[in-house]
Specification:
The protein is α+β, with helices and mostly antiparallel strands. The chain contains two helices and five strands, in the order E-E-E-E-E-H-H. Helix 1 packs antiparallel against helix 2.
Length: about 120
Amino acid sequence: MSNSKTSQIRITVHLDEKNVPTSINWDADDRTDGDKPVECKGMLLSLFERETMDTMKIDLWASDMQVNEMDRFFFQTLRGMADTYFKATQNRELAVDMQKFVQYFGEKTAILKVGS
């Protein structure tokens, strides 16, 4: 018998009358930082399907998310994707190129100071 474990991640999206997200909450069985769902303004979920080898995406953001918040959200997401790509593939050259784009993106959106 396997010692496998199951854990659930729950995402709740509150919608207005036009089905536009007004808030997004997430929670997980294994969360250790509180007992209430966490409110967030945006989410990007990509699922790589085993059988079809296609990626299913769900991209949502709350109606009150500002452009500067979206810029920061994408900057942090892109930076994390480059790190994850390197951890998964050990392809240093491509991961460095991805980080160069993240730097460029951060400077263009004023999240980073030019040359930092």
